[in-house]
Amino acid sequence: EVVVNRIAAGEIIQRPANALKELLENSLDAKSTVIQVTVKSGGLKLLQIQDNGTGIRREDMAIVCERFTTSKLTSFEDLTNIATFGFRGEALASMSHVAHLTIQTKTAKEKCAYKASYEDGKLKAPPKPCAGNQGTIITIEDLFYNMPQRKQALKSPNEEFQRISNVMSKYAIHNSKVGFTLKRYGEQPSIKTPPNSSQQTNIEILYGASIAKELLPVELKDDVHKFQMKGYITKVNYSSKKAITLFFINHRLVEVSSLKTALDNVYSTYLPRGMHPFAYISLEINPSNIDVNVHPTKHEVHFLYEDEIVEKIKQTLEAQLLGSNE
Ligand code: ADP
Ligand code: MG
């Protein structure tokens, strides 16, 4: 059973960057305002995230790494909503099957922090009291130590770090009120955004002034299909060989290939061949319209009325881009 669980876990946690994505979302769900990540060897030796969120109650520490343990479902409706993105209550459990996992945490009510290590979904020993601030530190060490093939399939530590850095940057832009720090162990931060920042400021910090000075805010509210779009795209003066797209659906970083294609079509009239814009697009759509059949490991998401919604977005971007051109 341990092996089966390990394989299942390896399906969910495919590389350090998607472990980080899960950890970031947990810290954000816990209402953190400052999130700091430390990495050794592209996240394979060490991936540590420290937040100042609500913390985990002492009595819940025994179960947080069990499969399907989640504090985030309160009703059936929640279940359908959250199921949108597949796995729930599986991230920490999965990590405990494919890495050495330690949690240190303190809630506002507790007098001290508690620390515990996990293996294969279970506490190794009762949590030990220790000193610590409110919030949670999750430490993932030796990722895939027990899955040599998976480890071999990964890119170099530098490339894995780059992926971590990309995920971090995208979340830092979407959640600009939260301060984010990313650093390699023992080094100065490579990413640092202040708390209470703005999305524009963070785009400038993370993607540079040449993008930041060409930003166009875009917005759309649609009552027919009940969705909202907000974001920033670059005006036609900016273009780059590298396409930078940040798509969020209901606050989760996703890939939407139909939207990517639409974006390319919008800009094809303006940009030289092979050149791309920068685009950050955040969609809020009715959770029950998101395809629940999409496998959790796929970051590609589909939703009901996708063609209509993407077409509407395309028209809006086109119009707003044209408007900014005049
Ligand atoms: P999910 O996020 O789907 O609930 P996870 O496996 O990611 O499942 O996390 C399990 C539970 O552990 C969460 O529901 C939450 O109660 C708790 N948890 C995880 N990370 C944190 C954190 N950084 N701060 C507070 N609670 C956390
Ligand atoms: Mg989670």
UniProtKB/TrEMBL annotation:
Location(s), subcellular: Nucleus
Ranges for domain DNA mismatch repair protein S5: 203-322
Keywords: DNA damage, DNA repair, Nucleus
Keyword DNA damage applies: yes
Organism domain of life: Eukaryota
Family: Belongs to the DNA mismatch repair MutL/HexB family.
Full protein name: DNA mismatch repair protein Mlh1-like
Source organism of the structure: Musca domestica (House fly)
